Amino acid sequence: MMIKKLLIANRGEIALRVMRSARELGIKTVAVYSEADRQALHVRFADEAVCIGPPPSSESYLRMEKIIEAAKETNADGIHPGYGFLSENAAFAKAVINAGLIFVGPPPKAIEIMGSKLAAKSAASKFNVPLVPGTTEPISDISKAKKISKEIGYPILIKASAGGGGKGMRVVNDEEEFTEQMQRAVSEATSAFGDGSVFIEKYVTHPRHIEFQIFGDQQGNVVHLFERDCSIQRRHQKVIEEAPSSVLTPELRAKMGEAAVNVARSCGYYNAGTVEFILDENKNFYFLEMNTRLQVEHPVTEQITGIDLVKLQIKIAEGEKIPFRQEELKIHGHAVEVRVYAEDPANNFLPDIGRIFRIHPHFHRVSMNL
Predict the structure, then answer these.
(1) Which fold would CATH assign to domain 208-351?
(2) For position 60, what pLDDT does the model report?
(3) Would you call 265 a catalytic residue per the annotation?
């Protein structure tokens, strides 16, 4: 089925990014917006726009039924979720498909499996993907958790099963601080995700965070489009993302790429996804999690491969096969993406908001005679 009109269930930069590729494919676009975003750029750029509610996202961008209603009202054929909001919500993907629309993303079952860190680890283990030593089931019994932690060896990491972005995550250096840190992790996970399930794994010191961009089609083909190095982070949020990584050898890249592809196969994945690994000091790598959507940092992969990932997403959603084989992909050059952080130094550098009045980037070009 071809997509002639695409609704983007998002706002801002990612909505514009999807619209640009859709327009280049000759596809009409529909924007949705809250009352606060009536004059936003993505609203003005789209061919059509529908207001879906008041400013709070819980009353607009997170209202599945309003988004699907807007798609039907405008005769859209498909919905692209962008990133954030409902992009990793299996119930939303199901609702879109049940409404007779094309969901430009992975199958609901894959979103569901990879949305739980424990379920994801269980699926990956069946394909012999390396995992960080730790528990395979949620744990709440503190004495039992202490015993397991002692067997693994400190330092350990307590992580929320349903978590992300560093929430519900605690590093524990010794047994004395275990009880307090576990209680905090469970409380934070319950507050942030409505799910207090936690698991324990070995804390890898001095790790590098390496993620692989994968793509699968509905015919069962899966490839990776190489890695992005996201090791420089602040509060567990990525600050600098680059591709390719400066620490991977071609042999290690091939092994990690194969593991990433196997993670995708483990849950019947298709469309765009990112498989995240941690790499220790001895170049051992371990599966961390999978993001079942397009990433903020996807442009660095586009820069080194020359492939428009959004166009590829749309074509795969329409049922097309991946138009290239793994061996045909090559890395060209090097790309870096840097995020701008707004923080208040007078308030312990906590995240803050405000208007950017001026940006003056400095680029220094180096001439080399080789």
Answers:
(1) D-amino Acid Aminotransferase; Chain A, domain 1 (3.30.470)
(2) 97
(3) no
